[in-house]
From TrEMBL:
Pfam families: ATP-grasp_5, CoA_binding_2, Ligase_CoA_2, Succ_CoA_lig. Keywords: ATP-binding, Nucleotide-binding. The lineage of its organism: Bacteria, Bacillati, Actinomycetota, Actinomycetes, Streptosporangiales. InterPro entries: ATP-grasp (IPR011761), ATP_grasp_subdomain_1 (IPR013815), CoA-bd (IPR003781), Ligase_CoA_dom (IPR043938), NAD(P)-bd_dom_sf (IPR036291), Succ_CoA_lig_flav_dom (IPR032875), Succinyl-CoA_synth-like (IPR016102). Residues 29-65 form the ATP-grasp domain. Coiled coil: none annotated. This is Acetyl coenzyme A synthetase (ADP forming)-like protein.
Length: 711
């Protein structure tokens, strides 16, 4: 696409020179012309006779609108008339609007009256853009006109955006089917709408000084899309582009932080119960193999290691300094750390921005940046990196090594993560507290975990994003290889972002996060346990090769619930072809039911489970299996679990590697059966039909985002 950027630049500079932050309707029209955004035929009249002439030239009926940089809310001022069908109506309408505008604001400068061809056919939608504090420029699309206020059926994406992202927005609103045409209605031209969305994204991407664009309504027909009303607002100041470190610069620091040759503990202590004592014990008892340097001006040694008055006195290089001192002493110690050339400062102390000490936090950020020190925290429990046996925290060391990296913004949630990891035996590569995120944030961590061979899945609890656009860029890189799971806390809506703008008022915080996290390709978890279960399960599951999901169940009731769960999680239940249906029927009793779910009934022996599960795994048209088990004396829970584990292992050895999840209903024996299945790579949960399917749905969401599904 080519755009006339020079024409837009001239219009924006003119408005700025006149001290205006709102463009007039004709100026908005000219900007639309420069970016290929279709608007109705129109002209600017400065007399009633001229209005009639323009109306007759562009074709009646027409709409008249006041054009004044001092009247932003045209309707409130009586500055809009619709459906004027003849010359006399246009002439009278011109005089009526001019009188109403002067009565509304006698001091207003009036450029004239916009005469616009009337557009009324098709579906009314809104296309716009707004500047978000977290993500910068975002594009909005949804139902327009009056419905935008009532239904708030709108979706958001980062700007600029691709044509595919724009098309995806059309399917992402609840009224998507309306645009396709229902009950004989004419469908909207999807390509024309997506093209307009993409052009709006390009406009605000090219001109960051544009704070908002509001095209409402846009009339979408089978032939195209036309923006009937254009509103463009400028920012008071041109926003400065956020400074970001390069990927190479981030990795240079992160590699030293996660794989340090030496760690200094500032505030190391001999006294049990002190944080400085716990950190020292954890480094030693956790098996860290690098140099450990206690920093304590009052003790010659700590826990048998020689102590130093200052980090400046430590011989040789230090990669990481763990701070275990009160907040009031941090700044001075950080200056010493910076002069020493330390890569990372792990700020355990609280008492900074989280308690209102914004100035104190700003001071240590400035010191760290001056010396090139990356700072984790403050207000954190520390961090683990199990491949290095590195426990730089006041919690107990975690020793189950694996591929899941977990981060949390909250210390309390961090403890929940730690407890779940221990109780479930989940193998972990890292557990990291980010706290106030004064410096190191999720972007930096994703950049490290992306290239970390010890990590195959990342799960993040966050309350906000410091740099939403940076997060999206990092996430879109890593999700091609590894799933990223996000628990976004804080679902409160922001207020209106700019008075009077539909687009701004609809930019609710959680809706924006939800849509843009999906654009980033991350899997959003609805709750803490969901995040942890996704993190535990996704690395164990093979990636599906297609969308066909088959349910095999021993109980009709669970089959219904599992079907509902599949629909809720965006999974596609396979339409069983006749030959496969016949093959399933050969293994189930006459009173069972083939189709999907395949109901083998509850009284069947282990062989029925084995034959039907093996058939589903062996048929290449089936891409994932959901198994519903019902506790019976014919097939007890552990018999079922051992059977399923064996069949899945045998089929995987043949190359039939598909995700298999199971729901087990029964007495308490099903808990042990689930543990056995989990240990053998089959995701299984007792007493629930929702959770195993939710985990499978999460795997599918990641696989789709990563482009790993065939077709």
């Amino acid at each position: 696409m080519t755009y006339d950027q020079a024409a837009v630049r001239e219009l924006l500079e003119k408005a700025r020179a006149e001290g205006r932050t709102a463009l007039t309707a004709p100026e908005g029209r000219r900007i639309c012309d420069a970016y290929g955004i279709t608007t109705p035929g129109e002209g600017l009249a400065t007399s009633a006779n001229e209005a009639v002439s323009i109306a007759e030239e562009i074709g009646l009926p027409v709409v008249l609108k006041i054009v004044s940089p001092d009247i932003l809310h045209k309707t409130e001022a009586g500055g809009v008339l619709v459906g004027l069908r003849d010359a006399e109506a246009v002439r009278a309408g011109y005089d009526q609007i001019m009188a109403a505008a002067r009565a509304y604001n006698p001091e207003a400068g009036i450029d004239g009256i916009q005469v616009q061809a009337m557009v009324g056919a098709g579906h009314e939608v809104i296309i716009g853009a707004v500047t978000d504090d977290t993500f910068g420029k975002i594009v909005a699309f949804g139902l327009g006109g009056v419905l935008v206020e009532v239904l708030k059926d709108v979706t958001f994406r980062l700007a600029p955006l691709s044509g595919d992202d724009a098309l995806g927005m059309l399917d992402d609103i609840k009224a998507a089917e309306v645009l396709r045409g229902v009950r004989g209605a004419e469908p909207a031209n999807r390509e024309a709408l997506a093209d307009m969305i993409e052009r709006v994204g390009a406009l605000v991407g090219d001109f960051p000084e544009i704070a908002e664009v509001d095209l409402n309504p846009v009339f979408a027909t089978a032939d195209g899309a036309t923006a009937a009303d254009v509103r463009i607002l400028l920012a008071e100041e041109v926003p400065q582009e956020r400074a970001r470190l390069s990927r190479e610069e981030i990795l240079a620091s992160m590699n030293r932080i996660f794989k340090p040759r030496s760690v200094a503990v500032i505030g190391a202590s001999e006294e049990t119960g002190k944080i400085g004592n716990s950190v020292m014990r954890n480094l030693i008892n956790g098996g860290y193999r690098g140099h450990i340097y206690p920093i304590n001006p009052k003790s010659p040694e700590v826990l048998g290691l020689p102590a130093y008055r200052s980090i400046s006195d430590v011989p040789g290089e230090v990669d990481v300094a763990v701070f275990a001192i009160p907040a009031k002493f941090v700044a001075a110690a950080l200056e010493d750390v910076g002069r020493k050339g330390v890569a990372g400062a792990i700020m355990i102390p609280s008492g900074f921005a989280e308690t209102g000490n914004v100035e104190g936090q700003a001071e240590i950020v400035e010191i760290a940046r001056k010396h090139g020190v990356r700072m984790l925290g403050p207000n954190i429990y520390g961090y683990y990196y199990t491949p290095e046996n590195l426990c730089a925290t006041f919690c107990t060391p975690y020793d189950v090594k694996g591929g899941v990296a977990l981060t949390s913004q909250s210390g309390g949630i961090g403890m929940a993560i730690l407890g779940f990891s221990r109780s479930s035996g989940m193998g972990v590569s890292a557990i990291v507290g980010v706290g106030n995120k004064a410096d190191v944030d999720e972007d930096d961590l994703l950049t490290f975990f992306e290239q970390d061979d010890n990590t195959n899945c990342v799960a993040m609890h966050l309350e906000d994003l410091k740099d939403g656009r940076g997060f999206v860029e990092a996430a879109q890189r890593i999700i091609r290889k590894k799933p990223v799971i996000v628990l976004k806390a804080g679902r409160t809506a922001m207020g209106a972002r700019a008075a009077g703008s539909h687009t701004g008022a609809l930019a609710g915080d959680d809706k924006v996060y939800d849509d843009i996290l999906r654009q980033a390709g991350v899997v959003r978890a609805p709750g803490l346990n969901d995040m942890l279960e996704y993190a535990r399960s996704l690395p164990l599951m093979p990636t599906p090769k297609g969308e066909n999901v088959v349910i095999i169940t021993g109980a009709g009731g669970s089959g219904v619930l599992l079907s509902d769960a599949c629909v809720d999680n965006g999974l596609s239940l396979m339409e069983i072809p006749p030959d496969l249906d016949e093959a399933f029927r050969a293994y189930i009793p006459p009173f069972g039911a083939a189709g999907n779910p395949v109901d083998i009934t509850g009284g069947e022996p282990p062989s029925t489970y084995e034959n039907t599960i093996r058939l589903g795994l062996a048929d290449p048209r089936v891409h994932a299996l959901v198994i519903g088990y019902w506790h019976t004396i014919v097939t007890p829970p552990m018999v079922f679990a051992e059977l399923v584990a064996r069949v899945v292992a045998e089929e995987r050895a043949k190359g039939n590697d598909k995700p298999v999840v199971a729901s087990l209903a029964g007495d308490t024996e099903v808990e042990e059966a689930c543990d056995h299945l989990f240990a053998n790579g089959v995701i299984a949960y007792p007493y629930t039909t929702e959770k195993p399917v939710a985990v499978l749905g999460a795997k599918y969401r990641w696989a789709r985002a990563a482009g790993l599904l065939n077709g």
